[in-house]
Amino acid sequence: MNRFAIDYIFPKPYNKTPLPVLYNSWEATYFDVNSENQCALAEKAAEMGVELFVMDDGWFGMRNDDRAGLGDWFVNKDKFPNGLTELIEKVNSLGMDFGLWVEPEMVNPDSDLFRAHPDWAYHYPHRTAHELRNQLVLNMTREDVQEYIFNLLDTLLTENNIKYFKWDMNRALSETGAENLEAPKMLWYLHTKAVYDIVDRLKAKHPGVTIESCCSGGGRSDLGALGHFDMFWTSDNTDGIDRMTIQKGCSLLRPTKAMRAWVTDIEGINKPCSLDFRFAVAMQGSLGIGGNLTKYSDEDLQICKKNIALYKEIRDIVQFGDLYRILDIEKDEVLLNQYVTEDKSKSVAFLLANGTRFYKKRIPICFDGLDENKRYRLTIQNNTYEKSGAYLMNVGIPLHIRGVDYNEIIILEEIK
Amino acid sequence: MSKIICRDKIFVIETENTHYVIGIDNTGCNRHVYWGKKCDVNDYEIDYNNGENSHNTVLDEITQEYTVFGSTMYRECALKANFSDTPADSAKCQDK
């Protein structure tokens, strides 16, 4: 399935290009964005090895919280008096591409767009149009709505060196009145097609731009969407422990490369796990960092730097390799996922556990997907082994896996 | 023998061994509260959750006794009505 998606589903020509390591500043600044605080974050991100710096919500219209501004995709002049150029030039000078968050299908009733075009949002006459997160959904089946959105996003890409959009969709649809349609039930197809068309047109006009389907609310991570979007947001739940099962479920249908996986600070309020642990989980997809870097210690930043450097070494194996799910965190107390290149010359395995039983005995860790006749070198728990694929897959390496925060990334390389 | 006990907006159907409890919550929605072994009738309460986010809506999370289609409820429904003045989408229970 993974190889099929890479060859036949993903938008070309970037289907075989690995996705960059991104940093997104949402958790650091939320709606309170400005050139100064974003530049400061960009410097930290670049120092860590990040390749794509993304500014999230808050940069447009009167967007100071989630009650206003959606629909007004114009740079907020109070926050960015000189437009986005200053920030983007800074980001580019640090060697990173720049990306931006948008939520084009949505509108807040408190926006210039809605005041000018109240009929552009889905609604029924004589019925309340229910808001979710204070927002309504634009009737994407209307050509004037499509052109409005295309033109604003096109302008952003034309006037600024933006290489990536995070296309969010933070609510489900309700009261889906589309009076413009002869057959109103066509709206589900026409709405989705309109989104795909805008994405395709933007990418055709601006080569080099990739677009993420940020689909927490929209659920837009199917293989149909991945024929247009280059990646998707997996879940707002970025808890390192929860993600082990979330990512497993996600991987059953969706290609690894498309799965954006972030290291965030959510551990602080949920189930504690170390920064290294969170990296070892997030590195099993397309790595992103979303934490508040202004609160990271020098030691934390070094941990980020080390893991990002490692990810760059292994990401081709992860994003394009074959995935073998060997041990399941829920069934086996231990997670072991292994990614192997098509020619079986390189592999990386992620071994994780978040609380094994006190006297857990040694278990043989057997690998999968290797060539029986090739010999591989690997280091595990500080011991280096040189064994045949047959031995590693059938006999395995006996290990004690103990503790609440066990995380090890094992690289297997063919000895030539 | 069964009987129905009404307590404020909570209705308890009582049989020899069991209670079946339904109610109306503070937004006017019909709610399923409980079905099982008999408890003290005065203990039943209607839980109300107003925490809505981009993953799920309040209507999607609450347990209803009888679920009708429409508004921001996305589960399987028991009743879907077409109104004469609008396409297939019934009014939310709060919209009375």
What does this entry look like structurally?
- The complex is a heterodimer of chains A (416) and B (96).
- With 416 residues, chain A is an alpha/beta fold.
- Chain A has two domains: 2-320, Alpha-Beta Barrel (TIM Barrel); 324-414, Immunoglobulin-like (Sandwich), CATH 2.60.40.
- Chain A is 31% helix and 21% strand.
- In chain A, the strands form four sheets. Chain A has an eight-stranded parallel barrel with strand order 1-2-3-6-7-8-9-10, surrounded by six helices.
- The two termini of chain A are 30 Å apart.
- With 96 residues, chain B is mainly beta.
- A four-stranded antiparallel beta sheet of chain B has the order 1-2-3-4, with no helix packed on it.
- The interface between A and B is medium-sized, with 19 and 16 residues.
For the largest sheet of chain B, list the strands in their spatial order: 1-2-3-4
Alpha-beta classification of chain A: alpha/beta
- CATH level-4 homologous superfamily of the largest domain in chain A: Aldolase class I
Distance N to C terminus of chain A: 30 Å
Strand order of the largest sheet of chain A: 1-2-3-6-7-8-9-10
Helix fraction of chain A, binned, reads 25-40%
- Helical percent range of chain B? under 10%
The two chains with the largest interface, and their residue counts, are: A-B, 19 and 16 residues
Q: CATH topology of the largest domain in chain A, what is it called?
A: TIM Barrel
The appropriate CATH architecture of the largest domain in chain A is Alpha-Beta Barrel
Count of extended strands of chain B: 4
Which labels suit this protein?
heterodimer; A: 416 residues; alpha/beta; TIM Barrel; Immunoglobulin-like; 2 domains; 8-stranded parallel barrel; 6-stranded antiparallel beta sheet; 12 helices; B: 96 residues; mainly beta; 4-stranded antiparallel beta sheet; 4% helix; disordered C terminus
Quick structural summary:
Chain A has 416 residues and is of the alpha/beta class.
